[in-house]
Amino acid sequence: MAACCGKLAMFIKIHDILSSALDSDLSPLAGLDCALNTGHLDIVNYIMDYSKDRPITNTLEINRVRDTILNMELLERLMAHPNIKCTFKDVLSDAINARNIEVIDMILFNSRFNIDCQGALDTALFLSDFDTARKIIGKFNPTWMEDLFSTNGLCGLITKFCEPGGTIKSITNK
User: Fold this and answer.
1) Given CB 3.0 to 4.6 Å as the disulfide criterion, which of 2, 122, 125, 163 pairs with 11?
2) Tens-place pLDDT, residues 90-144
3) 22, part of any domain
4) Cα distance between residue 62 and residue 84, in whole Å
5) Is 139 within the bounds of a domain?
6) Residue 153: which region, alpha, beta or left (left: phi > 0; alpha: psi -120 to 50)?
């Protein structure tokens, strides 16, 4: 709970108390997922540093990183950790929200991630980020996109009418 609320001192105190009461160390990665989801970088940094020298028996899967703390350095640190499985399912959408082109390109052009393409495309279109939408369509042009947009031809509209840096206004000529 303290990790989700961003209370570093409280997190450390609770972790120490529980570790003492259980007569063993809690998982060194406890609270990391919550701190990443809620954007508490100080707690993320503490947990990452704390877990370096501790034996870890479990693996933590990371699907989301709050857009306010999302950067390449953090993603590289997460990917380098042997007990963190970086599926990054929703990180592409988070990067689109943050308008972080470096992270968007890294996620899009790295086949190791299991990303939510439809959610990322929805986010890009919602934010009128047609450059990213085109990248997503270009990278993931399987039949699910054809099925998804077959009734209104949205993919065709984006592909034919969106210029780099395009906006809804430039597409509709209004």
Assistant:
1) 2
2) 999 999 999 999 999 999 988 788 888 889 988 998 998 989 988 888 887 655 5
3) no
4) 7
5) yes
6) left
Do residues 44 and 69 lie in contact, with contact meaning Cβ atoms separated by under 8 Å?
yes
- Quote the Cα angle for 81-29-66, to 5°: 80
pLDDT at 172: 45
| 158 C-beta neighbours (distance < 10 Å), count | 20
Q: Note whether residue 168 is domain-resident.
A: yes
pLDDT of 160 higher than 70: no
What's the number of domains the chain is made of? 1
Residue 82 lies in a domain: no
Query: 0.85 cut: is pTM over it?
Result: no
CA dist., res. 54 & res. 16, Å (int): 14
